[in-house]
Structure formats: structure tokens, C-alpha cells
Amino acid sequence: MKILYVPKKWILAIILFICLGMGTWYVVKPEAVETAGSPAASKRLVINMVTGEFKSQLENGKEIEAYRWDPGTIHIPYDQPVTLSIYGVNGKEHPFFIEGTDVKGTVVKGKETVLHLRFKKQGIYRLICKTHSDISHNGPMIAYLVVD
Ligand SMILES: [Cu+2]
User: Fold this and answer.
1) What's the number of domains the chain is made of?
2) Around ion ligand 1, which residues have CB less than 5 A away?
């Protein structure tokens, strides 16, 4: 029987080689898978919103409802031109304003309201419907525009 003699120096060299190989793989391994597409923000970002309505009935038979912007929270890139399209689905009309700006308008049922926006200051801006601003007026119909 033949016994393979491996000198101690070689064993150290082999271990070092394996460690180097694993270390290299760890450093160069891809963190994200490349795809053919590109993120939405690489072109002008268009954000689509609709008006919705929640309806329910209390045990005593009383109807309660709340109108909503949907989605209720959106992220907007800071100092980038974005288009906000709001389609009126529920509710006859929703006159609105964006707090802290001079942006205002009305979303009408069956129609699309298009806003071209660019926020020069980061923060949370509230899109408030004047008709349905709180619980006592079938709201609060408020969306949060997070500019970051
Ligand atoms: Cu409203």
C-alpha cells in the first residue's frame, strides 16, 4: 500500500488557496440580478391614483362611508418631474388641494385629472379633498405624498 506523503507546507498552501477562492467568490458574487428592464423613475414617473369609497353598516342600521384616494400613500422623488394622474371612480366630484403648495383642482367621476408636479423640498405633503376632509364629512379623504 502506497502512502501519499503531503508535506505540512503544502497542506497550509492548499488551505490558503481554498480560503482565497472562497473569499474572492464572496467579494465578487453578484448582489442583484441584472434584468433587461429599468426602474420606473428612469423615465418621467407617472403615478396613477383613483378615488374610491368604503361603505359599511353599523349594528343599528346606520350607513357609514369614507371616500379615499387610492393609493393613500405615494413616494415621489425629490426635485424630479412627476405626473400624477387621478381617475374619478367613486363620488361625483372631489375638489382638492395639496397642503403647502398652490396646487389645486377637482377630480370628477369618469374623468382623469392630470397634474405635473416637481417638489423642491422634501417632506410629507397632504392631498386633501375639501368635500371629504374628515370623518363627519365622509372622509378623511387624504393622501400622503412622501417626497424623498
Ligand atoms: Cu372627496
Assistant:
1) 1
2) 67, 94, 129, 131-132, 141
| pLDDT at position 9 | 78
Task: Report the DSSP pairing between strands 82-87 and 112-117.
Answer: antiparallel
Please give the distance, rounded to the nearest whole angstrom, from the Cα atom of residue 16 to the centre of ligand 1.
Answer: 68
Residue-wise pLDDT tens digits, 84-130 = 999 999 999 999 999 999 999 999 999 999 999 999 999 999 999 99
The answer to whether position 60 is within a domain reads: yes
- The whole model's pTM is what? 0.72
Q: Which residues contact 144 (CB under 8 A, 6 or more apart)?
A: 72, 73, 74, 124, 125, 126, 127
Picking from 39, 120, 117, the residue whose alpha carbon sits closest to that of residue 81 is 117
On whether residue 29 sits in a domain, the answer given is no
Can you give the CATH number for the domain in which 61 is found? 2.60.40.420
Query: Band of the pLDDT at 43, cuts 50, 70, 90?
Result: confident
Question: From the CA of 131, how far away is ligand 1's center (Å)?
Answer: 5
Position 2 in a domain = no
132 occurs within a structural domain: yes
